[in-house]
Amino acid sequence: SAGFKPCSTIKPVIAIAALQEGIVTSDTRIRITRRKYLNLTEAMAHSNNAYFEELGRRMGFDTVSEYARMLGLGEPAGYGIPEEQPGSLPAEPPKSGGVARMSSFGEGIQMTPLQLGAIVSTVANGGTLYYLQYPRTPEEIENFEPRVKRTLDITSLLPDLREGMHAAVLRGTARRSNMPDSEQASGKTGSCSDAGQRIGWFVSY
């Protein structure tokens, strides 16, 4: 498909950007209501929109867009998959909510399931963004080799993000995924409205 609004699955991208840019550390607490502050782990676990909107405002549209592209949005995730479409990134801050809503709901972004899978695989493996491949013949399967799209210098940032995604499964928005504790699964949910349709995402590793 041409893609869908990412909803809250954009938040791992925003977290990586904010950590790399020095906007937050794992200990940084951001005020989300008059008396409530959250750190990155709890904000990710409970998919707190106010927290990620503030990160987006602090970084600005250009920085958020740069990291979205770096992590593969707006371009095909696959290698030689003719059916795949590249999704899209906005050329300017969305009229509805600007960069803040872009950073909490993915406003203005069209993302495909292949792109989301590639992003979270990068989180899981330590920072290597691979091309997704679809070998279709016995010969292609026999000769399959991984193809690296780019290697990202984010390894030191990932424990903080992974902790939040693991907390999402243990006690946050993904707690009803019914994954056994022994699996040590981590994940991210996303739900929102897109062109009058209700969209629901869940990605895990």
Write structural notes for this entry.
With 205 residues, the protein is an alpha+beta fold. The protein is built from eight helices and six strands; from the N terminus they run H-E-E-H-H-H-H-H-E-H-E-H-E-E. The strands form three sheets. The chain has a two-stranded antiparallel ribbon with strand order 1-2. It has a two-stranded antiparallel sheet with strand order 3-4. A two-stranded antiparallel ribbon has the order 5-6. Strand 1 and strand 2 form a beta hairpin. Helix 1 crosses helix 3 and helix 3 packs across helix 5. The protein is globular and about 60 Å long. The two termini are 23 Å apart. The model has no long low-confidence stretch (mean pLDDT 95).
Q: What is shown here, in short?
A:
The protein is α+β, with helices and mostly antiparallel strands. The protein contains 8 helices and 6 strands. Helix 1 crosses helix 3, helix 1 crosses helix 4 and helix 3 crosses helix 5.
